[in-house]
């Protein structure tokens, strides 16, 4: 009995020790990364300066395989030319430890603007690839942190490229604001942005958040954001017909049109620059003598409204007037061949 009692007591003590160890592990799991984030990430001795003269890339250790634990790496990319920007593009293969409550607490990669310490973004998990980032000047900083638990794969790889600010033939300062650029040059620059937020940040780097709020502030004017649809057309489902008929017959098809050309508005910039519309296209089989006289033309046209961002120079004032507006475009609903 005495031996049995000693065994039970030893087992109970071991269980309590195991529970305490588990509690300690959990505590370090949820508390340690925060301490490391404040100490290791900020430690200048971890920063590696990379002089950028051409395109290149940086990546997590062992990419695309599992990265190591307990790692803190900081890269500062510095372009030799002070009059260029640095663009960061994440590789499609991206995966770090998942966030907790949508917050990247443990393993993450972070991009910072060195000029003012602004954090452009922090990412982890693997559900989506981080968006493209562009520096304000010729430097940008990247941090990678992993704690002692649950490393993931493939990690990350960031490709960096140099962007030269747009310039005109006439001599101008390297920091020429977008609003001072010729419309054709600015139109080409606008084409490279994928979201309204990125575009507004480029146009108004000092007050882009206020401009974005003003842009989406409700007004009393009703915007026709929905398309205007006509009655359902009784057109034969061409997908059920033969492949050659579907490809070559006279039917409404998707065409990409330039808004500036379509609306004849060379004094205005639209974003997006182009939109898809339905226009008649395809071959006709109605020719008897001269086939050139046979044309595929619309028999039913509908005007649809598309919401776009409109940029116009202010009269006598420096800067651009920005507004969301509805532009009408013709869509061909039905087509037929006529000679």
From TrEMBL:
Residues 1-22 form the signal peptide. CDD domains: CUB (cd00041), PDGF (cd00135). Residues 46-163 form the CUB domain. It is found in: Secreted. Belongs to the PDGF/VEGF growth factor family. Keywords: Cleavage on pair of basic residues, Developmental protein, Disulfide bond, Glycoprotein, Growth factor, Mitogen, Secreted, Signal. The keyword Thylakoid does not apply. Its main location: secreted. GO terms for biological process: platelet-derived growth factor receptor signaling pathway; positive regulation of cell division; positive regulation of cell migration; positive regulation of cell population proliferation; positive regulation of ERK1 and ERK2 cascade; positive regulation of phosphatidylinositol 3-kinase/protein kinase B signal transduction. Pfam families: CUB, PDGF. GO terms for molecular function: growth factor activity; platelet-derived growth factor receptor binding. Residues 250-339 form the Platelet-derived growth factor (PDGF) family profile domain. The keyword Transmembrane does not apply. One of its GO terms (cellular component) is membrane. This is Platelet-derived growth factor C.
